[in-house]
Specification:
Layout (H helix, E strand, L loop, with lengths): L1 H31 L2 E2 L10 E2 L3 H7 L2 H32 L6 H9 L6 H12 L5 H10 L9 H29 L4 H8 L4 H29 L3 H6 L11 H9 L5 H26 L1 H6 L1
Antiparallel strand pairs: 1-2
Length: 291
């Protein structure tokens, strides 16, 4: 009994922080989502409007469009980060000259705040002063202008996210690869298995939980990306990069639709949970049943 009390006492600070910054804010956002509220209006009182905000979300063409653009952004960014991160993790598992230096350089983007990343990429992609448009024009004759081309703006935001977050994927997969036991690989090589067979039948199943956890983290982060995209494109041109996070930001702050913005946040949270659950059911649950 005393050990249980000690355990709860040690967990109390963590549970308190989780409640303060996780549970209570969610309950408050859920409460606001059932109201019409503009705290900067002449009459700032909340007006209960039942599920009107959620009804508006369902029929809001701009939100549906932002959800589609966000889905494309998340797919291309997360898949690219996973592939590149795994390739880099395998490369860093081997010894080569300057390995420590390259690992340090590789992880530098992680220490940069998203707003700084967006500002840096804004400078690098501005047609008059940016290094990227200059190089593309000199090497390929391509005039990059993310302020006018919707496709270019979308691609640049994906590349920016890959540059920023691939090191996180690499570090996660390095930790997973280092923890693998050598016996199955040695036995597979003795039996004459090739690299692809070893990867598909041994490496991938053993690091699948680490991959899924990394995908969950990146999926949640990508769905709520705001800072760097706002700094780089402002959500434009048009609605080409008006991702869900940017859409919520513009509804809440410039338009001060706090109730409607809260409703969108709850819907996006639900979508995130459903997607993560489907990934878990599709990738982890069948493996647990076989085991």
């Amino acid at each position: 009994m005393q050990s249980n009390r000690l355990g709860w006492l040690l967990l109390a600070p963590t549970l308190l922080i989780l409640a303060m910054f996780g549970v209570f804010p969610f309950i408050y956002v859920l409460f606001v989502s059932f109201h019409q509220w503009n705290p900067f209006a002449v009459n700032p009182e909340m007006m209960f409007n039942w599920a009107a905000n959620y009804r508006r979300v369902v029929f809001d063409a701009q939100f549906i469009a932002s959800l589609g653009v966000t889905a494309a952004f998340v797919f291309f960014a997360v898949v690219s980060e996973l592939v590149i991160g795994y390739a880099l993790a395998q490369a860093f598992m081997k010894d080569f000259p300057g390995k420590a230096f390259f690992r340090t350089i590789h992880t530098l983007p992680l220490i940069m705040a998203p707003i700084i990343v967006g500002s840096v990429w804004k400078l690098m992609t501005t047609p008059s002063i940016g290094i990227i448009p200059h190089l593309l024009d000199n090497w390929f004759g391509y005039d990059l202008n993310i302020g006018q081309s919707a496709t270019a703006a979308f691609v640049v935001t994906v590349i920016m996210d890959i540059w920023h977050w691939t090191p996180l994927v690499t570090l996660s997969l390095i930790a997973a690869l280092v923890s693998l036991p050598p016996d199955p690989f040695e036995q597979a090589q003795i039996d004459g298995a090739g690299r692809w067979q070893i990867f598909w039948h041994i490496t991938l199943p053993m690091i699948r939980p680490a991959i899924l956890a990394t995908v969950f983290i990146r999926l949640m982060d990508a769905l709520r990306t705001v800072d760097e995209v706002l700094m780089l494109t402002g959500g434009g041109p048009g609605s080409a990069t008006r991702y869900v996070g940017v859409h919520i930001f513009k509804e809440v702050f410039p338009r001060t639709n706090y109730g409607y913005g809260s409703a969108i946040s709850v819907v996006v949270l639900y979508v995130t949970i459903v997607v993560c659950w489907l990934l878990y059911v599709g990738l982890i649950a069948p493996r647990n049943k076989k085991g």
